[in-house]
């Protein structure tokens, strides 16, 4: 996987995501400078997949307060999976998909903590 592959992945994915009925409105209402967003996300993926040190942020914090729901993550992963399989070589696509699935689970665990007070006491 190369930096050019990551750039193509980010641009194709967000092209689809911005038009998507489920997650498009969220992206379009929270991102005003798409070129800046592309660069930030590309740097994130460069760190995640290539081990570079360009990305210095914390990806979870910017997603707080966006009123995200589990179905948003389901759609995000599905679009990402389709995009990765279309634009990356199979080995790179599988690695990127594993990473995004892990990120989705981690973000959801942070955003939607289990509320044990609502569980049936018999369980």
UniProtKB/TrEMBL annotation:
Protein known as: Preprotein translocase subunit TatC
UniProt-listed Gene3D superfamilies: Globins (1.10.490.10)
Protein residues bound to heme: 37
Organism lineage string: Bacteria, Pseudomonadati, Pseudomonadota, Alphaproteobacteria, Hyphomicrobiales
Highest taxon above the source species: Bacteria
This protein's UniProt keywords: Heme, Iron, Metal-binding, Transport
GO function term, MF aspect, one: oxygen binding
